[in-house]
Amino acid sequence: MELKTRPNLQGLRVVSFESRRAQEMAELIRRYGGEPIAAPSMREIPLTENRAAIELLPAIEAIKFDILILTTGVGTKTLNEILLTHYQQERIVAALKTVQLVARGPKPMGVLKDLGLPAAVTVPEPNTWREIISTLEAAVELRGKRIAIQEYGIVNPELIAALESRGAAVTPIPIYRWALPLDLAPLRAAIDKIVAGEVEVALFTNGAQVDHLFRVAADNKIDEKLRLACKAIVIASVGPICTQAIQQFGLKPDIEPAHPKMGALIAEVAASAQSILLTKNHE
Q1: SS3 per residue for the chain
Q2: Residue 2 has pLDDT above 70, yes or no
Q3: Which pLDDT value is given to residue 149?
Q4: How many Å apart are CA 232 and CA 201, to the nearest integer?
């Protein structure tokens, strides 16, 4: 499809809180005719001294787990890197072949493919805990299963509770945590722009982005002003998990694409943002 046939943001000022793919997001916004405001909101800190991750391999070798749920591509890759600080790659791959590997979407599946490992179960979109449960239930009997979950920066209590209610024993394996960026200036500047009415669209691609945004605003005692200002702009969430985080702050996303991907998010924002803004302005 030619660029000129795409919906156009028509110069809307779009703030993105993406960090790892900040440049890619800004370029997408420009391609759709928007004015990007980059406000990186998080950095990933591997838990390299986390004994739970390091001790996962010998636990698998001792047949203490039946299933390993891999929730993110970054987390799966980081888990392998942490294990490599203590074990040979051949030993890691051999051990992982002895458990059923569950990939939450294509990204962890891609990492597994690079390691020469098949996924016994692949979770379809939108990759929430509900899809994990329904897919697993269709594939295996969960009662009595011992399941390790590679976490992705936050605990997923709904997934753990759902598995335990079905008779599984669950062990969370934290791989990395999210911290605020070292340089908070872009994030603070974005908050000021939203409060001042100088932003039309806010994009969220991770639930931790929302938490960090309001944490910084609270530090400056403008979190309530930010919340009110956000109600006047278009809030776009990449998917259901991110949407839940936004709702915890009293906000309701205006846009959530059918496919929880960055490109789909921008495309839907470009197609719908103008009309949503018109509606908000007349309320």
Answers
A1: CCHHHCCCCCCCEEEECCCCCHHHHHHHHHHCCCEEEECCCCEEEECCCCHHHHCHHHHHHCCCCCEEEECCHHHHHHHHHHHHCCCCHHHHHHHHCCCEEEECCHHHHHHHHHCCCCCCEECCCCCCHHHHHHHHHHHCCCCCCEEEEECCCCCCHHHHHHHHHCCCEEEEECCEEEECCCCCHHHHHHHHHHHCCCCCEEEECCHHHHHHHHHHHHHCCCHHHHHHHHCCCEEEECCHHHHHHHHCCCCCCCECCCCCCHHHHHHHHHHHHHHHHHHHHCC
A2: no
A3: 97
A4: 9
pLDDT tens digits along 130-156: 999 999 999 999 999 999 999 877 778
Task: State the Cα–Cα distance between residues 85 and 76, nearest whole angstrom.
Answer: 15
| Closest C-alpha to 227, from 219, 217, 236 | 217
Write down the residue that tokens 């496919």 correspond to. 259
Q: How confident is the model at residue 203 (pLDDT cuts 50, 70, 90)?
A: very high
pTM over 0.85: no
* Residue 168 tokens, joined: 């599984």
| pLDDT-derived band at 1, boundaries 50, 70, 90 | very low
